[in-house]
């Protein structure tokens, strides 16, 4: 607590899709083991290092266990603000990693082996909450940022834009955002599905909308101060905070309030502005704006603390909402997603550079 800790950045390389295989795309990304990945193509030859690399053969479970996601859940229970964000071009596997193929089809439930980081985290959260014997109050909020407007994905009414405010005690927060309490896995999974459906049905073309909006699902964990799990904090070099019975404040302990936020970012590919008009160009501009702002903040944050200049969080709604996760008191896991295909080479290299830079960013949880 209070010590500087780095963002944890892991890489997931999805398998070649059937279409890519059929048309004979070359595989240009190879995992070297030990967190290293090699990109080799005609004029490119580069190696990148991450906390972990998951290649095409990695199961959803392996990603959950190997990324540090389990520890992040434990840290959220201990009162930290935890964030995991998936980043990469459209079709690189962000939604698959977070939610599994379930997000693609509403009618057929996905096989348990394919469930993504979100459902696995919910299970872990509910299990931990039961096994610690602490009564945690769990609630969820779900919003998207589309064309620089914040929309509540859980609110049943017509989607209106919600205001984003700042206060000294809370930092940036969304006003009037709906928070729904839940106690079971079924309940939270159903909220996730409802929200994701809302995100999709409002689109003219299904995939286009989801690759143009950022979705943030936040689980709020509120509990009485109980002693922390000894394993919490492993992997970030943090020692779990102890409170509860041993604390001199026992009995009068303020309740711990942690959060666990899952961010499915819009596709990072450069939106071609030529030829797009009207609505499309508004979309293009706002995505470019928020992802550019995010990239800009990450570059500045990656500099040593002493050499940092002002961080322009206010440049976009996305960076305002992620300010704490990136430069404040949050604990953050970034899952960079890439395709191994030769056709995606330039986007892949750009994701790898972006992700490498993010590894130098530190926060003070
Ligand atoms: P994104 O959200 O980044 O646009 P998706 O998660 O929708 O990308 O993935 C694009 C396609 O690739 C989907 O059909 C998805 O099922 C498939 N896919 C992605 N990652 C994997 C993986 N690790 N294993 C198998 N299929 C995957
Ligand atoms: Mg997606």
UniProtKB/TrEMBL annotation:
CDD domains the record matches: KISc
GO molecular function, one term: microtubule motor activity
Primary location group: cytoplasm
Pfam families (alphabetical): Kinesin (PF00225)
Keywords: ATP-binding, Cytoplasm, Cytoskeleton, Microtubule, Motor protein, Nucleotide-binding
Superkingdom to which the source organism belongs: Eukaryota
InterPro entries to which the protein is assigned, alphabetical: Kinesin-like_fam (IPR027640), Kinesin_motor_CS (IPR019821), Kinesin_motor_dom (IPR001752), Kinesin_motor_dom_sf (IPR036961), P-loop_NTPase (IPR027417)
Entry's Gene Ontology BP terms: microtubule-based movement; mitotic spindle organization; spindle elongation
Kinesin motor domain segment(s): 6-361
Cellular compartments annotated: Cytoplasm, Cytoskeleton
Keyword ATP-binding annotated: yes
GO cellular component: microtubule; microtubule associated complex
Binding annotation for ATP: 88-95
PANTHER family linked to this entry: CHROMOSOME-ASSOCIATED KINESIN KIF4A-RELATED, KINESIN-LIKE PROTEIN
Family: Belongs to the TRAFAC class myosin-kinesin ATPase superfamily. Kinesin family.
Protein's UniProt name: Kinesin-like protein
Organism: Hylia prasina (green hylia)
Organism lineage string: Eukaryota, Metazoa, Chordata, Craniata, Vertebrata
Gene: Kif12
């Amino acid at each position: 607590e209070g010590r500087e800790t780095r963002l944890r950045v892991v890489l997931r390389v999805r398998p070649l899709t059937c279409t890519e295989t059929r048309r004979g795309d070359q595989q240009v990304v190879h995992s070297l083991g030990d967190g290293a990945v090699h990109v080799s193509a005609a004029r490119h030859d580069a190696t990148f290092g991450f906390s972990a690399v998951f290649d095409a053969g990695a199961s959803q479970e392996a990603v959950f266990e190997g990324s540090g996601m389990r520890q992040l859940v434990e840290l959220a229970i201990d009162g930290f603000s935890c964030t995991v964000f998936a980043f990469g071009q459209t079709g690189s596997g962000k939604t698959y990693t977070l939610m599994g193929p379930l997000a693609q089809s509403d009618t057929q439930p996905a096989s348990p082996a394919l469930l993504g980081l979100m459902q696995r985290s919910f299970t872990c959260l509910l299990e931990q909450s039961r096994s610690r014997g602490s009564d945690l109050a769990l609630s969820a909020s779900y919003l998207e940022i589309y064309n620089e407007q914040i929309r509540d994905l859980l609110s049943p009414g017509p989607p209106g834009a919600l205001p984003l405010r700042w206060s000294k005690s809370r930092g940036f927060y969304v006003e009037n955002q709906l928070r729904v309490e839940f106690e079971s896995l079924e309940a939270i999974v159903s909220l996730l599905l409802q929200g994701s459906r809302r995100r999709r049905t409002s689109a003219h073309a299904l995939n286009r909308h989801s690759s143009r909006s950022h979705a943030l699902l936040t689980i709020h964990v509120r509990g009485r101060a109980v002693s922390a799990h000894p394993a919490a904090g492993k992997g970030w070099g943090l020692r779990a905070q102890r409170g509860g019975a041993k604390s001199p404040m026992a009995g009068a302990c303020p309740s711990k309030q942690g959060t666990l936020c899952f961010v499915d970012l819009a596709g990072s590919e450069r939106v071609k502005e030529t030829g797009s008009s009207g609505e499309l160009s508004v979309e293009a501009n706002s995505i470019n704006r928020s992802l550019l702002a995010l990239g800009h903040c990450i570059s500045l944050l990656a500099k040593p603390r002493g050499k940092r200049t002002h961080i322009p969080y206010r440049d976009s709604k996305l960076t305002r909402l992620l300010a704490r996760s990136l430069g404040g008191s949050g604990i953050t896991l970034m899952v960079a997603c890439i395709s191994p295909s030769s056709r995606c080479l330039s986007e892949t290299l750009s994701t790898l550079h972006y992700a490498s830079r993010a590894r130098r960013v530190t926060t003070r949880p």
